[in-house]
């Protein structure tokens, strides 16, 4: 009896052990508990220092034409635990070295009725949890269609959230800061107009979602490694404060076509008692596959200018002519039409920009509107909208390439696709080859307007697959990609570091489309940048847009000091000085910071941060001794007190501080700044006042 | 007053003249009358020898998000008439020379409220009418979306029709012969299973639609030059016997995205008092643009065999292995899986076919199942289903190409796409280049299964655009295309003669999938072949499929003589001897006809024809003196009496006649035939008996 009792006890314990299992982070503060509900539903929960972060939440997927689905009736076959610790070097980044350290729990499940196997893999880092679904090779589950993924994230409280309305096609909204319970009431106001947009629920929000609990926990929900899957939004059950995954549907309303063996992306929950750790977290990158490109020597961070802002403000035009109701590529003879006289991408103007960029040490010049087709480039659902290789009559590709080269400037290509993905793919090889033949090594791509094939969405599996195809093919051609309006990034730049940027959020251009909230840039690093760098295109010095275009009364809701700070706070290996040369020429002393600031880093230290309020970060340039500090400020005047104890102990430095003038204000006095210099050491402290929508930028160079 | 009266009268006459206008065919028998209804709706009607063919029918288009649409409120601005007469030479065809002769009426319309311009262009030939919508360049109408085209074809009687159920994805149905009023009741029975299909109405039918009136008029409705538009079906108002155009919708239910200036395809109405004139008509080709390919020397008709029928019958397999639940291209290692031993596309078997084909003078050998991916090739909605360049381990591309070349045989490529059009386009350049690198100059493409992007249909504008893209790119590579499951052809092979074939109807393979109606081949030339040749793949000598595959009880509903006749009656520049070499070896005397028959023609004369009952045609080989005659017969034993007065007056000939044996029958005695020879001249007459599902084939060679 005793033996039987022991066996039974052991079995019972083993069953409990199989049915409920704990996973701890390396430092033990985060604890994830996996357990099975009675009806065979897998669940997880997460605590931080014993405080609930994620209450018990169910996992599973609803399948199309499959009543059983992958929701319940599972049993645990076995579990495997492991630990991983490794340091790796990104090709570019905020840090020269990144530690990847986690404890892992893999739960192998089998569905009783169907014998289908599914694995849940959990990785618990010191800064958060990542988990994903895995579908092993098996005869019971091969091809399947997702009707909806049903991953819950049960919140432990009515947190403050910084959210965007959930949308299948656009992320270009201002953030709303509210309690979770208030999302529903504020939803409609949060939805402003866009060229392509589609919401799905009054409590639907996008990722990454930044939250702060009443007791000071910072929680961020996102996904990592979104490849060949549909992009996830979150839908809030605002009665119970439970988020559930809501994938982007295809043209028929289905949410994903999968073939085992395969995996879902990682769903990520970052947790910290401090906001800075969220910004510093490398969890998203760590969950992605290592670099897949063997030779990465051609991938280089870029500081650039562009023939762009003058079109965004409406001062000039992408299009060559206003005389035609429409154009037909290869048929319309542009040499015979009347130029509108406002076409910015012309030889003379471009050379002017090249001269300025060269004089001030910029690596590249982006030119938009260089190619035939801009007359009817969006809103027409046009299939054959661009061919990506035929310039307008006033843009001489070879001549400008040679001119730029002679001035040590590289031309940056622009591929606006107007969402016509099949057309882009049809031309892609020729377009990329054209780039190589003409000295372009980086391309900004765009997807303005509804996606073709019609019915697909920007964030559906079909389009996600397309963006990835463009990135991978670009790598074959040794081309760097900066994709705008594409799906929000999820750390794929670790695997494909030629993806040097995305927009995929409300960028600087919206300051010319009516303006963004002054604290927008204090939110973005907590939300959009969790997945990867953003080509935010900062550096606007003239805030009154009517000065560039009398018909545009938009105002840039930022001070000049805030604009300078963005080069440090808005991490990107691709940094644009977006304004017009003539505007920089009026403030050459401030412009000096943009010229000096690095674009690649050995080290980054987030000194202080609070989402929606302020971010201050210090970064050390890659392979050098200089440091750069940036502070962006929200709505309230604030004194930022920082210690420079990150500086080398045995060095002396000169700090050049670009700060708001005392009476600066993003709206009424944005161009008031003061520049001062100071000798500093690692013992120095600084107290600087930032005004509403203001900030400061500091370059710190060694005094030898 | 008199002057005013005269002016008024002139104006009135002019107005009437503008509002109603007659157009006559060159020989005057067909008269088309255009007129405007009071509410500004354009109409047309057609008579033949003063008999109504099309009663007054309205024209117009319903636009999306446009209440006004292009349906009414038009006025005639002006009309232009012209005549055209020209003879042109096709690269291949039934005739060496084709006369293109028509009278044309162009009606320029303007919509009063919107000022939008639309032109209706009518071309009236001796054998029928073609008309289309044209949208001139204008500011009032640039980009527009078709909700539905509303072209009516008001029938003058309850005709007998030979119809297929209207379907957005398949044409692979048996024909139903019935009165128009009976379509509704017979519709469901007409719909048999297919891998991809979607009907839209119980009175929806496909084109071309063949009809016969009670008073002996033959009428055929179809379209010509379907390019960048959605394929048209016909929906019958069976109360009033009015057909209306029903276009194929896209994933969102819209029917076409157009940009002016542009045109719709031609809608065609063939009319004749004799069935033969329908078959002989070149109206569809004449409405297409002339050949767009400058050098056509590489385009050559082909007689071929194939490693194909043994898979169709289930005797062997396209797939290499049965061991995997699914395959992943580039990941699955085929050298490590267990071959299923039934994979037909292996070196040894292919060489066997090459030997046979070479011995008997065939130009080409098609091999299906040569490439990785067939294990899960359809029904999975698989995106990356084939790469078109990676052979199975047992298929050596280079070795087989060299072997074939040494035997004067060209390998024919196979690109099954499984409907995954984006995947095909991604690989198309590499796939076509692979063909050129390995000595392939023709490709059979397939689109089995639902189209990807999902939600699109086989006959929608998106897919139509894709098929055209494949044809035009193939022309750049000097590759000939034979597209199966693609949209039914509409004469585009005049413009792109590298389109040497389509299936796009129920072909011989269905004889192995349960059988087709024995008179199927007496209908197809009146319906499917109106738009272009069909790769019908005839030449089956073993009708009992269970002899090839004991698990397949299908029966080929045709006699051997009927199979031989198809090489003459089923016009195609691409002719396959589809059966297995071993089956031909059992009937080498009958096989001789297949070896002798030409594939390209100087002249074709339809001797007698009745849709659903019989077709007899005589053709003179291109550049030679031989003639070939073929007769296919329907359900009733029939004596076919023909005069050989097409032969040269001053020549003597030997006719070799392959006819049904007296007791032959498609079901009970299909392999009974008799071969006889006879000396003939232009004065000779023949009377031959064809059994149910039977026929005869005659080769006539000059006795020098």
From TrEMBL, chains A, B:
Residues 308-505 form the Glycosyl-hydrolase 97 catalytic domain. Keywords: Calcium, Hydrolase. The keyword Hydrolase applies. The keyword Lyase does not apply. Residues 23-290 form the Glycosyl-hydrolase 97 N-terminal domain. GO terms for molecular function: carbohydrate binding; hydrolase activity. Pfam families: GH97_C (PF14509), GH97_N (PF14508), Glyco_hydro_97 (PF10566). Residues 600-701 form the Glycosyl-hydrolase 97 C-terminal oligomerisation domain. Monomer. It comes from Seonamhaeicola algicola. Transmembrane segments: none annotated. InterPro entries: Aldolase_TIM, GH, GH-type_carb-bd, GH97_C, GH97_catalytic, GH97_N, Glycosyl_hydrolase_97. Its cofactor is Ca(2+). This is Glycoside hydrolase family 97 protein.
């Amino acid at each position: 009896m005793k033996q039987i009792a022991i066996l039974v006890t052991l079995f019972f314990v083993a069953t409990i052990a199989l049915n409920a299992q704990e996973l701890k982070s390396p430092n033990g503060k985060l604890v994830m508990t996996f357990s099975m509900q009675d009806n065979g539903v897998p669940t997880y929960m997460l605590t931080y220092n014993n405080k609930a972060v994620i209450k018990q939440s169910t996992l599973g997927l609803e399948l199309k034409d499959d009543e059983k689905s992958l929701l319940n009736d599972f049993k645990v076959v076995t579990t495997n635990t492991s630990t991983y610790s490794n340091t790796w070097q990104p090709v570019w980044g905020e840090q020269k070295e990144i530690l990847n350290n986690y404890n892992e729990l893999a739960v192998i499940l089998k569905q009783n009725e169907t014998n289908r196997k599914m694995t849940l893999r959990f990785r618990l880092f010191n800064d958060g949890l990542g988990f994903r679904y895995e579908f092993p090779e098996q005869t019971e589950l091969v091809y399947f269609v997702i009707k909806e993924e049903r991953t819950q994230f049960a919140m432990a409280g009515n947190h403050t959230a910084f959210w965007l309305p959930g949308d299948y096609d656009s992320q270009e909204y201002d953030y709303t800061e509210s309690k979770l319970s208030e999302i529903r009431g504020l939803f409609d106001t949060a939805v402003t107009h866009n060229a392509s947009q589609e919401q799905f629920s009054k409590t639907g929000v996008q990722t990454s979602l930044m939250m702060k609990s009443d007791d000071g926990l910072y929680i961020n929900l996102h996904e990592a490694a979104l490849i060949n899957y549909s992009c996830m939004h979150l839908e809030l059950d605002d009665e119970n404060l439970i988020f559930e995954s809501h994938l982007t549907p295809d043209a028929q309303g289905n949410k994903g076509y999968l073939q085992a063996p395969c995996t879902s992306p990682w769903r990520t929950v970052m947790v910290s008692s401090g906001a800075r750790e969220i910004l510093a977290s490398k969890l998203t990158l760590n969950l992605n596959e290592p670099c897949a490109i063997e030779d990465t020597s051609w991938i280089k961070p870029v500081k650039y200018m562009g023939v762009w802002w003058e079109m965004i403000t409406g001062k000039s035009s992408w299009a060559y002519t206003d005389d035609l109701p429409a154009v037909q590529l290869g048929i319309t003879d542009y040499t015979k039409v009347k130029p509108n006289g406002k076409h910015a991408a012309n030889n003379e103007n471009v050379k002017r920009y090249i001269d300025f960029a060269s004089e001030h040490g910029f690596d590249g010049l982006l030119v938009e509107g260089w190619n035939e087709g801009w007359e009817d480039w969006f809103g027409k659902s046009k299939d054959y909208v661009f061919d990506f290789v035929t310039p307008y009559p006033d843009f001489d590709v070879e001549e400008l390439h040679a001119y730029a080269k002679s001035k040590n400037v590289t031309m940056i290509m622009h591929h606006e696709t107007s969402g016509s993905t099949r057309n882009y793919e049809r031309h892609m090889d020729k377009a990329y080859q054209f780039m190589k033949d003409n000295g372009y090594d980086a391309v900004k791509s765009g997807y303005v307007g509804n996606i073709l094939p019609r019915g697909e969405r920007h964030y559906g599996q079909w389009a996600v697959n397309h963006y990835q195809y463009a990135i991978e093919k670009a790598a074959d051609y040794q081309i760097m990609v900066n994709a705008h309006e594409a799906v929000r990034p999820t750390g794929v730049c670790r695997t494909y570091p030629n993806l040097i940027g995305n927009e995929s959020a409300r960028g600087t251009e919206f300051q010319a489309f009516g303006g963004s909230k002054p604290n927008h840039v204090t939110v973005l690093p907590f939300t959009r940048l969790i997945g990867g760098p953003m080509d935010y295109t900062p550096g606007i010095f003239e805030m009154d847009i009517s000065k560039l275009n009398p018909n545009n009364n938009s105002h840039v809701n930022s001070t000049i000091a805030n604009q300078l700070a963005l080069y440090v706070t808005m991490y990107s290996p691709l940094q644009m000085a977006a304004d017009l040369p003539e505007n920089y020429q009026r403030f050459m002393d401030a412009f000096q910071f943009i010229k000096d600031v690095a674009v690649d880093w050995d080290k980054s230290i987030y000194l202080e941060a609070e989402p929606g309020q302020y971010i201050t970060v210090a970064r050390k340039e890659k392979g050098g001794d200089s440091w750069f500090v940036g502070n962006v400020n929200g709505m309230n005047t604030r004194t930022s007190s920082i210690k420079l104890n990150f500086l080398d102990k045995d060095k002396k430095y000169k700090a050049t501080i670009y700060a708001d003038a005392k009476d600066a204000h993003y709206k009424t006095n944005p161009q008031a700044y003061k520049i001062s210099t100071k000798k500093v050491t690692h013992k120095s402290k600084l107290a600087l006042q930032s005004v509403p929508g203001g900030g400061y930028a500091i370059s710190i160079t060694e005094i030898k």
